[in-house]
């Protein structure tokens, strides 16, 4: 998944997409690896907004690190989860409630696409990625 192309991006990222493509960024992994300085440089040279590029990088990091689908990573970002560390520390029930509200606001009364098992799986993946204070990589959730 991480090597897949992020393109096409949603319409509101049109200028950012053009700038990323101009600079040879062709995968989620490449986008995830961009530094703050590189994002600033991309924003200064062609109409892309640094704020939008940071959002895209956050999405790319979730896609790359946790093997999430791009729409899943975007949903987490809009719910306030911007990193695998943030996801690892999240309460499964709180996150499920938050995601449910967000999905309803975006999709109306369509059935939720994210269920409790999916949220727990995402959190477990995030927890497995980083060692905790005791070095075990586990968190007491």
What would the keywords be for this entry?
mainly alpha; globular; disordered C terminus
Question: How would you describe this protein?
Answer:
The chain has 141 residues and is mainly α. The protein folds into two domains: 1-78, no CATH class; 80-141, no CATH class. Helix content is 60%, strand content 0%. The protein contains eight helices and no strands. The chain has helices at residues 14-22, 28-32, 36-44, 50-66, 70-78, 84-88, 92-107, 116-129. Helix 4 crosses helix 5 (70-78) and helix 7 (92-107) crosses helix 8. The longest helix is centred in the middle third of the chain and has 17 residues, at 50-66. It is globular, with a radius of gyration of 16 Å.
Pick out the low-confidence regions.
Answer: 134-141
Order of helices and strands: HHHHHHHH
Shape: globular
What separation lies between the terminal Cα atoms? 28 Å
Task: Give me the secondary-structure category.
Answer: mainly alpha
> How many β-strand stretches?
0
Total domain modules: 2
**Count of alpha and pi helical runs:** 8
Quote the beta fraction.
under 5%
């Amino acid at each position: 998944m991480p090597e897949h192309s992020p393109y096409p991006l949603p319409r509101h990222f049109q200028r950012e997409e053009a700038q990323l493509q101009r600079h040879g960024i062709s995968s989620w992994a490449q986008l995830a690896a961009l530094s703050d300085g590189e994002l600033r440089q991309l924003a200064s040279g062609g109409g892309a907004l640094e704020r939008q590029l940071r959002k895209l990088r956050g999405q790319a990091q979730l896609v790359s690190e946790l093997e999430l689908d791009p729409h899943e990573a975007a949903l987490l970002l809009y719910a306030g989860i911007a990193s695998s560390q943030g996801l690892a520390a999240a309460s499964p029930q709180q996150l499920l409630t938050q995601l449910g509200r967000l999905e309803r606001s975006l999709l109306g009364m369509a059935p939720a696409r994210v269920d409790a098992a999916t949220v727990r799986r995402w959190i477990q993946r995030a927890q497995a990625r980083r060692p905790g204070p005791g070095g075990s990589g586990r968190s007491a959730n």
